[in-house]
Amino acid sequence: MAVLDWIQSVFGSPTMDAVMATVGLKAAGIIILAAILIPLLVVKKYRRLAVFIIIAIVILYTVSEFLVKPLVARPRPFINDPGIVLLLSPPGGFSFFSTHTMIAFMGATVIFMEASWKLGVASYILALLISFSRMYLYFHYLTDVIAGAVIGVMCAVVICYALKRYSDRTEEKEIL
Is the pLDDT score of 109 beyond 80? Predict the structure, then answer.
């Protein structure tokens, strides 16, 4: 909790509250995902990549929300300190690990590895902003965010490997 209080003491301001509340909205996450995935789906070269990302998001979200979080059952920071005034409606469920962070880092890593390093760097900056917002809003502890980022990157590496294997097999069939 000390890290979250420090974040508020250093960065807390009405402007930052507005920015973090906007970034922290679930709708904002959906809009960001759509802004990344729709262009990938439209460009034939990246269509398979977009489909892999969508499948991974569904699987990772399900595992996180319905298996890991209930199993670990870590209360969110605002539950442990009822004096915290939230900027957004409190999310349901448990804290460990941050699904928003996991999906953001998974997407950024896949884009970095498979699409464009420049777009990947921009995606990493966005992933860091999303992660920071989760702590700023008292929705997640630092360890929740770190775990989400690590799991997201690891899943991205698996996705890229699977995509490569699938693409290699498809090319072999086309040659035959």
Answer: yes
Q: Which of 61, 60, 64, 80 is nearest to 1 (CA)?
A: 80
65: tokens are 């929300």
Contact by Cβ (8 Å): 41, 47: yes
Residues contacting 9, CB < 8 A, separation 6+: none
- Does 105 have pLDDT greater than 90? yes
Find, among 52, 10, 2, 23, the residue nearest to 132 by Cα.
23
Q: At what angle do helices 117-136 and 2-11 cross, to 10 degrees?
A: 100
Helix axes of 14-24 and 117-136: crossing angle, nearest 10 degrees = 110
The pLDDT score that the predictor gives to residue 48 is 81
Tell me what the pLDDT averaged over the chain comes to. 86
How many of the other CB atoms lie within 10 Å of CB of 95? 24
DSSP string covering 19-71, please?
A: HHHHHHSHHHHHHHHHHHHHHHHHSHHHHHHHHHHHHHHHHHHHHIIIIIHHH
Contact predicate 30/104, CB 8 Å: no
Q: Is the pLDDT of residue 2 over 80?
A: yes
Residue 172 pLDDT more than 70?
no
pTM of the model: 0.85
Reading the block at residue 104, the tokens are 């953001």
Residues 6+ apart with CB under 8 A from 7: 132, 135, 136
